[in-house]
UniProtKB/TrEMBL annotation:
The lineage of its organism: Bacteria, Bacillati, Actinomycetota, Actinomycetes, Kitasatosporales. PANTHER family: BLR3095 PROTEIN, CYSTEINE DESULFURASE. This is Aminotransferase class V domain-containing protein. Residues 3-274 form the Aminotransferase class V domain. It comes from the Bacteria. SUPFAM superfamilies: PLP-dependent transferases.
Length: 308
């Protein structure tokens, strides 16, 4: 058991180094959904409080607040060219208690300016919760720009399903009153974890963090960014229109499909061993640092024949 505890603390330390927090700020969960719901049920809400989010947000970000007594969920559309940051900043009002947002949109690949949004929330006395599922592990993250930063073990983090982690600012943690309770957070504990975590998942999360540190966080970002830029530029030259704000791009490339529906492109590309996804009717392409140039070549070759 001592070895297991040591491995858990090693994972906390590695994540703290990567995300700019302390090991004590990190809580493990089984999924981002569990973590966000734990937050939603630990804040001392007041009648008339509002939670602000975007109208196309991933359900894990938007739905946990929808059934809270006395709390109003306010949704707004993204701005022109998918300017998500400005849309939220403009919509913060006197009753906004919390803003919930994805760091990178799963539909469009647009990244939110967390520094600007976090500052706006702080100025308004509102909390900021950020879902880093589409960013953590590939984009540089300063977790202190949000009051709550949550990330899942799969996708860019390379650790698989069934494990996630939540980073909570210490001053905010001291105000929480958990209502999802278990042996791990008996009152007066402020801990949001309710029981024994997924230890195998934490081991995987730690091994993946070691790998990213070995490869180099900056090198990972630069390689994935370069691949995404190549795909975005060359696909646009082929007639595909990139979706998302041009000033806030990420390592996710989202394209309006050309010639075929997005689902048909997914099937066709899978037949050439190139894996992409359909999101919001668009074609989503997510190269990571390990993606070989030959895969990008195959992707672009297939995209060059939309009617084949």
């Amino acid at each position: 058991m001592a070895r297991t505890r040591a491995a858990v603390e090693r994972t906390r330390t590695l994540l703290a180094e990567e995300f700019g927090c302390t090991a004590q700020d990190i809580v493990f969960a089984s999924s981002t959904g569990e973590a966000v719901n734990a937050v939603a049920r630990a804040i001392s809400w007041q009648q008339g409080d509002e939670v602000l989010t975007l109208d196309d947000e991933f359900p894990t970000v938007s739905q946990p607040w929808s059934k809270l007594p006395g709390v109003r969920l306010v949704t707004v559309p993204a701005g022109p060219d998918d300017d998500r940051t400005s849309a939220l900043m403009r919509a913060i009002g006197p009753h906004t208690r919390l803003v919930a947002v994805s760091h990178v949109s799963s539909h469009t690949g647009t990244a939110v300016d967390l520094a600007a949004l976090g500052a706006a929330c702080t100025a308004a006395g509102a909390l900021l919760l950020c879902d880093g599922a589409q960013a953590a592990g590939v984009l540089p993250v300063v977790s202190a720009q949000a009051d709550f930063y949550v990330a899942t073990g799969y996708k860019w983090m390379l650790a698989g399903f069934g494990i996630a982690f939540l980073i909570i600012k210490a001053p905010v943690r001291d105000t929480l009153e958990p209502t999802l309770l278990g042996h791990a957070n008996i009152s007066p504990s402020r801990n949001l974890a309710v029981g024994t975590p997924n230890l195998a998942g934490i081991h995987a999360l730690g091994a993946a963090a070691e790998l990213r540190r070995t490869v180099g966080h900056q090198a990972i970002t630069e390689r994935a960014t370069a691949l995404a830029a190549r795909i975005r530029d060359e696909a646009q030259a082929l007639g595909f229109r990139p979706v998302g704000h041009p000033g806030h791009v990420s390592q996710i490339v989202s394209l309006v499909p050309l010639g075929l529906p997005a689902e048909s492109w997914v099937t066709r590309l899978e037949g050439t061993d190139v894996i992409v996804a359909e999101r919001g009717g668009n074609l989503r392409i997510s190269p990571h640092f390990y993606t070989p140039d030959s895969d990008v070549d195959a992707l672009l070759l297939a995209l060059s024949h939309p009617h084949a």
